[in-house]
Design a protein that fits this description.
Layout: E1 7-11, E2 19-22, E3 29-30, H1 31-37, E4 43-46, E5 55-56, E6 59-60, E7 63-64, E8 76-79, H2 88-91, E9 107-110, H3 118-125, E10 131-138, E11 144-152, H4 155-162, E12 166-167, E13 172-176, H5 179-186, E14 191-195, H6 203-210, E15 216-220, E16 228-233, H7 236-242, E17 245-249, E18 252-258, H8 263-297, E19 303-308, E20 311-316
Parallel strand pairs: 1-8
Antiparallel strand pairs: 1-2, 3-7, 4-5, 4-8, 6-7, 9-11, 9-13, 10-11, 12-13, 14-16, 14-18, 15-16, 17-18, 19-20
GO biological process, one term: regulation of gene expression
Domain RRM: 105-182, 190-261
Keywords: mRNA processing, mRNA splicing, Nucleus, Repeat, RNA-binding, Transcription, Transcription regulation
Amino acid sequence: MENIEKYIPVCECEGEDFMEIPLESDGTLSTATLSAYFPGVTGLKFRLDSYSPYRALRLYDGKFHAPEGSWAGHKFYCVHPKGDKRKLEETDCKPSKGYHSMSCTDLIVLGLPYQLSETQMREYFVQFGKLVMVQIKRDASGNSKGFGFIRYEDYSSQAKALGQRHYVNNRWVEVKIPASKEGYYSKVPHKIFVGRLTEDISEPDLSKYFSQYGEITDVFIPKPFRAFGFVTFNDASVAQSLCDEDHIVKGVSLHISEANPKSDQNRDKQVSNQQQYMSSVLTNGMLAAALNQVAYQTQPIPYQTHRTYGKVQDWKRRGN
């Protein structure tokens, strides 16, 4: 084929920026390539002109074929499954590849060199993203207390700063979320559940595929094989953005959802078991005490009176 196109313009929906997607050597577009850039997509559509209705692109044997034999002059839009959360009317066509609406917070920087200035501090941390605040805490005399605060303009920059160690002016410093705010962020899941796995998909396969969305800290597929696995990201926003979507890995459609932490469930179950145990102990203890009291009150006595038909008779208990 001569003058074959090497890339075609594709975007999430009308109004979004287009991305040029590479074609195969035979001039087709593979579903794997399309899904790598637009996860969850099941098809493509296009218009002949601005007044024409959409036309679906033909899909055959895992490849999209050019409309009427040529890609030239067309712009293509993604098609998602019916009911998918990323449909135009439900999400206003916001891209979901690693973006999330989580807000930034002040980060505390511990172990700062006492001679470090705000300017030097800014020069170091600006490498991770635009800073909106840099502050070193000082005493009444103006001397550094050895810690300070920074705040980034966007969450991705904050995640980068939190995801690594820092060596500032020949000293290791620690960057973390202040304890007063740590509880909220620690509850945001970093892990995703990957369902519909097949046995020919390995942990390296999952790592290679999902690493395009963000830094991965762990990949786990249970053994013996149970058709699911887990992927943990350094940035919780990346994990959240991938949930409730289908991704094609090695020709297999995998469903992604939030990995429900079992620690809280196990802890609640453990507390419940402990409460039941203590209740059982208490009940059995009270019963045992009551039986002991009855036994104490019914100890053998030499004589016991017994009233029968209005008469009192004495009965002498025989000894052994």
